[in-house]
Amino acid sequence: MSAIFSVSELTRSVKNLLEAEFPFVWVRGQVTNLARPASGHLYFTLSDGDAALSVVWFKRSQMSAEPVKRGGEKVNPLTGEVEDEQGGTALTGSGIEDGMEVLCAGRINVYEPRGQYQLVAELVQDQGVGDLAVAFEALKKKLSEKGYFDEDRKIALPKDPKKVAVITSPSGAAIRDFLRIANARGTGSEIRIYPSLVQGDNAPEQIAAALDQADADDWADVAVLIRGGGSLEDLWAFNTEPVADAIFRARLPVVSGVGHEPDVSIADFVADKRAATPSHVAQELWPRRETLAQTLDDLDMSLSRAYSSWLHGKGTQFEHLRKALTWLSPERKLERMEDQFSSLLTRLDDAGHDHYYDKLLDTKAYAERLERAFGADAVDNVAAETSGLIGRMQQAMARLGETKGRDLELASTMLGGLNPEAPLERGYSLVRIERTGEFLRDPKEVTPGEALDIRVKNGHIAAVVKDEKTDS
User: Fold this and answer.
1) 211 touches 225 (CB < 8 A)
2) Taking all residues of the chain, what is their mean pLDDT, rounded to a whole number?
């Protein structure tokens, strides 16, 4: 019967076996997922494209691995060998970077809490830049020259989108994180998942096809590429030209949320917006509901204040108009006219009284002055003299009237004698020439056949001058 191990027992057995079998090894690979915590230790992954190995390089080992000079030569403190200038160069903790091809020396160790085996590095030597890093930089340069990264071609994201197309693996942790954050933000949205592989040789074509399909459906407001963290090899599908081409030709705005914060992919450069993680994508797309609620409250209060201010302004304006209309109303105008008339009447009455009393005082003053100047007897004498003059004037006027009456009768008689119509009373007549309207005084003034008007006392007689020869 086989023995039954607890997890810790089995892990410890594997640990003892591995550490005994590989007390010190040299491993070549490419550095990915480099992490530098505050402790000073370094954590990274060594990869050769087919497999990956976790590496920890403790701070004390970094310090002890620095080459020392002896007699002008650099000596490796770990091996005691003289380093060839043409060979690998020992690195310090600050000199190691993602994408470097390195040679690590150390011991195999099993980290029991995770059941994970790792290489505890004692020495790290630079072996040049890895193939993946070279390919990454080459593609980055190529696409940059083609304008794939130009900011002026990128589309602004819609605020609080209502329809979102997500290109990802439907079974991965990334979609769960994305949906969890999306469910707690925004004002509600439809999310449609376009399934695709996100790792492996077939992933680039599937990612590109899914993005093309989402763009062709013309359903979504924005398209999202998401994948959880991993090594450079795990994320390599997003560093390929098919995916970059699909993002570039998409009419939808595209957000890339691939890996963790330090991870940067070609898709990030081409996308219209780069997010650090899948969760961060949701945070970029939708605002927090608490923020929306606070914004709504602010808008509500601002609207209330604006409405109150508007209402107060209109009330003040209405009151001014009411007063103006009251002032201009016919009734108010009549009242003002009555008030003005009463005021003028009072002023006129006062002025009349003042004028009367002023003139009365003047009259009294003049009377007193006359009385002082002439006295009562002088006034009586003047009055008597005036009466005599009036009598004499009346007599003279009477005599003048009689004289002028006689002169008028004489003139009338003389005028009557000069009246051309007076002889008519005595049987005479007046003859006018029709042609000229003048009185006929001489027969030579007319010719035979000429019309005449003969006026007698009681009318007119028409006549025609006859030819004397004809009459004979």
Assistant:
1) yes
2) 83
C-alpha dihedral sign at 20, 25, 28, 32? positive
pLDDT over threshold 60, residue 345: yes
Q: How far is CA 212 from CA 67, 205, 223, 246, 282, in A?
A: 54, 10, 10, 6, 21
Alpha helices, H only, 146-240: 173-183, 203-217
User: Domain 7-129 falls in which CATH fold?
Assistant: OB fold (Dihydrolipoamide Acetyltransferase, E2P) (2.40.50)
Residue 452's H or E segment, with its range, is: strand 451-456
The answer regarding whether domain 140-287 maps to CATH 3.40.50.280 reads: yes
Angle between helices 289-328 and 330-417 (to 10 degrees): 30
Where does residue 310 rank: exposed (0-12), middle (13-18), buried (19+ CB within 10 A)? exposed
Residue with tokens 């006129």: 348
R_g of the chain computed on alpha carbons = 67
Sheet containing 451-456: give its strands across: 430-433, 451-456, 459-464
pLDDT band at 71 (very low <50, low <70, confident <90, very high): low
| Residues 472, 457: Cα–Cα separation, whole Å | 32
Helix axes 131-145, 241-249, angle to 10 degrees: 30
Domain ranges of the chain: 7-129, 140-287, 291-330, 423-471
Q: Which helix (H) or strand (E) holds 153?
A: none
Q: Dump pLDDT digits (tens) for 123-168.
A: 888 776 566 777 888 899 999 999 999 999 999 999 889 999 999 9
**Residue 459: both structure tokens together:** 């009318």
Distance CA 61, CA 63 (A): 5
- B/e letters for 162-200, b = 16+ CB within 10 Å, e = fewer, are eebbbbbbeebebbebbeebbeebbeebebebbebbbbe
pLDDT digits (tens, 9 = 90+) for 84-98: 444 455 667 677 888
